[in-house]
Design goal:
With 283 residues, the protein is an alpha/beta fold. It has helices at residues 4-9, 11-20, 43-56, 62-69, 89-102, 112-116, 120-131, 148-156, 177-195, 214-223, 255-263, 268-282, and strands at residues 29-35, 58-59, 78-85, 106-110, 160-163, 201-203, 226-228, 247-248. Strands 1, 2, 3, 4, 5 and 8 form a six-stranded parallel β-sheet that branches. Strands 6-7 form a two-stranded parallel sheet. The structure holds zinc ion (ZN).
Length: 283
């Protein structure tokens, strides 16, 4: 994986190059953003970032995304879909206070064991043991999980819920089939029975090339219609059964950096990894 700091170091140079290679800004684009926990102090930053993106991009709903991939209604131009991983309570607050104001719908990917938790203490323990590698500031007092009630409310306002494994395990290092079943299939069963909706979307934890192995690919595609990675790229020309690409966006970096990711300038880095995954899916 490319290192955040190293990207930042070359930010300025890449921006100049990207200006030279404007043609990379393909006309028909469908990119998917992924955010995680958002700290309260960053709410304003997040709002501003989305506002800037909204000037240049058309934010689509999860249903519009499904219809595009299934050929029911094709999109045009430059489209963005918003997603959140991990099921933090802040996602719920952000939806209520920011996304509704901007009229943006999103997909929220949650680990099923995390959203079952009802005490702050247990929530913190889960975060520390299972999720914390996302550079979350654990000193924040209000760090906790969304509840089933929160997810129901998100559904009511036009968002979608997706599965993000059971315990936020890295599927790339699991070889036992029973463990994979728990993470990929049992997790969705729990969400489906408590939310009374079908879960068709699944996001790999970590989402890098090594976290996506053959066994798990077979299983995820046997259950889910839409399977997401964190490998960057344009999804406009995706086939139905192909891995979905997403762009991790950092709140602490300048808007120029997001512009670079979304320009597709560094997609080439992920191109062969995506090719290899898609070949394995179609086998
Ligand atoms: Zn995650």
């Amino acid at each position: 994986m490319i290192n955040h700091k190293s990207i930042r170091y070359f930010e300025k140079i890449i921006l100049i190059v990207s200006k030279l290679f404007k043609f990379l800004d393909s006309k028909d684009t469908l990119r998917i953003l992924v955010y995680h926990h958002i700290e309260k102090k960053d709410f304003k930053k997040f709002y501003d970032q989305l506002k800037i993106l909204k000037n240049k991009w058309n934010f689509i709903t999860p249903v519009e995304f499904e219809n595009h991939i299934y050929g029911k209604k094709k999109l045009k131009g430059k489209n963005l879909l918003l997603t959140f991983d991990d099921g933090f309570k802040s996602n719920y607050t952000v939806e209520k206070n920011i996304l509704r104001k901007l009229n943006i719908k999103s997909i929220f990917f949650v680990p099923s064991d995390f959203i079952k938790i009802r005490s702050t203490k247990k929530s913190k323990k889960f975060i520390n043991e299972n999720i914390l590698d996302n550079n979350i500031d654990n000193h924040e007092k209000k760090l906790s999980n969304m509840t089933i009630q929160n997810l129901k409310s998100l559904l009511r306002s036009g968002n979608l819920i997706g599965c993000h494994t059971k315990t936020h395990a890295n599927l790339g290092v699991i070889n036992e089939k029973s463990k994979l079943k728990n993470e990929i299939l049992q997790s969705a069963k729990y969400l489906e029975s408590s939310l009374k909706v079908k879960i068709n979307h699944f996001a790999y934890t970590y989402g890098n090339y090594d976290s996506i192995n053959n066994e798990s690919l077979k299983m995820t595609f046997s259950k889910y219609k839409f399977v997401y990675s964190c490998l960057r790229g344009n999804n406009f020309f995706n086939k139905r059964k192909s891995i979905i690409k997403r762009d991790t966006i950092y709140l602490d970096s300048s808007n120029d950096l997001s512009e670079i990711f979304l320009s597709g300038l560094i997609d080439l880095r992920y191109f062969f990894q995506i090719q290899s995954i898609n070949k394995r899916i179609s086998k």
